[in-house]
Amino acid sequence: MLEIRNLIASYGPVLAIRDISFTADAGKITTVIGANGAGKSTLLRVISGLEPATSGSITWQGHSLLNKTPEAIVRLGVAHVPEGHAVIASLTVAENIEMGALFRRRAHKQDVRVAISEMYALFPRLEERRNQLAGTLSGGERQMLAISRALVSRPSLLLLDEPSLGLAPLVVEQIIATIKQLCISTGLSVLLVEQNANTALAVADHGVLLSLGSVVADQPASLMRADSALRSAYLGY
Amino acid sequence: MDTALTTLFLGTTRGAVFALVAMGLVLVWRGAGIVNFAQMGQAMFSTYIASSLIISGHGYWFAFATALIAGALLGALVDVAVMRPLTKRSHSGILASESMRATVPVIASLGILGILQSLAGMLWAAEERGFPSPVSDVAVKAFGKTAPFTNFDLFIIIVVLLTLAATTLFFTKTGMGLAMRATALNPEVARLSGIRIGRVRTLSWAISGVASSLAGLLITPSANLSPNTLDLILIVGFTAAVVGGLESLPGSVVGGFILGLLIAVVNVYDAPDDVFLALLIFLLVVLIVKPGGLFGSKRVRNV
């Protein structure tokens, strides 16, 4: 279980998160939705250790994640796919995936090999392009690669930031379906940040709605989807 | 014909050393975003250590190996003791602004150069000393003719080519090499992948220290050793790195060889006084024609 209590954090000089508390169940997809500037991306960056928190607490499966480096947090099973198809353009597809497994290569040599081949099974298009530079991939393929880079570390919690950004609806659907499948088959927990609330709520188990750095709703995704007052007030549709 | 061959060999030998210096600069630039002006100061220091060992009766190869290890340790020390604390305090005082954050480490590297040079002056009395070469530096004679190169020239070229091959293998075939490339290209994604970028950066400084110490050991037999001898080598190495695009390891190596040949041609066919003029003109032409350097990275366009 991911437990966030009274979290306060700034993004540069801006107070981006003012007192957020919620929990996300293990093995489920929890989506964090809200308009631009609601603090969604900052939340993920604080969880993965890229940004410091001012106060509050974050625990994953009993381990505190605050005041730890991103390098240490990945080792606790929390993998972050930041916004914008974060791959390294001048490395090949294979190198990008291998990079995600580097820190396990000594202790789990066999399993790393298995994990890498699982990624190619998950996204066969990456296998076809394994020796191409990541910079030559299409947007959708890059997102698949960014997700593979995170999944190959065998995380228990996946932080996904706007996977739909700039992608065709069909590609988004395919990627989201793959993630959902993974949750069911492996017990992976997902914290999905989305601006596209419709897509996110359709796939998620639970929804957390942020506005200006605070939680305004925290309920099952199906309820949130049905709440038209909430939608028109905060999501504008 | 003989003059041309001599020029070619002189240029290649010197170029090999410049390639090492440029490679050292590019490693730190890519790894830490710092142009390390102290680099040849570090090399001078480790060469003095080798020289002292040889004077006190140790063998050349023992001194050679010790100097390389000293170069690695000194490089790592510069990072851990100076550069890391400087970048850590990035949110306070003078380091709060972006431009100062880029400038301060470079100024610090100039400070380290000054400290190393004065320290060498104090420790070794600043006297110029010769430095031995491990093999003969008299022109090779074969079939009754004098070849345009010495055994030491061949030694330099072989050592540098082996070093370049080892570096290439390290970067392309090992996990640590991949970690170093990833850290240089995108530190954020590297950290999220679990790469401990602090340690990787320190390793870049250490490898750069080894490369430049090797350059120092190879160039001093033909130049004599004093606290300032390697300053000019740094300027040429830096020019080579910029000509190669500053970001690219192969570019820096090619840049080193090009400059070596250029300097040899000017030395032999014109006058040694014109070397720096020729360097500057060449650098200007490259920067005007290809502002990103000969091997500058073409930015991948994001759609």
From TrEMBL, chain A:
Keywords: Amino-acid transport, ATP-binding, Nucleotide-binding, Transport. PROSITE patterns: ABC_TRANSPORTER_1, ABC_TRANSPORTER_2. The keyword Phosphoprotein does not apply. GO terms for molecular function: ATP binding; ATP hydrolysis activity; branched-chain amino acid transmembrane transporter activity. GO terms for biological process: L-amino acid transport. InterPro entries: AAA+_ATPase, ABC_transporter-like_ATP-bd, ABC_transporter-like_CS, BCAA_Transport_ATP-bd_LivF, P-loop_NTPase. It holds the Pfam family ABC_tran. Residues 2-237 form the ABC transporter domain. This is Unannotated protein. Belongs to the ABC transporter superfamily. It comes from freshwater metagenome.
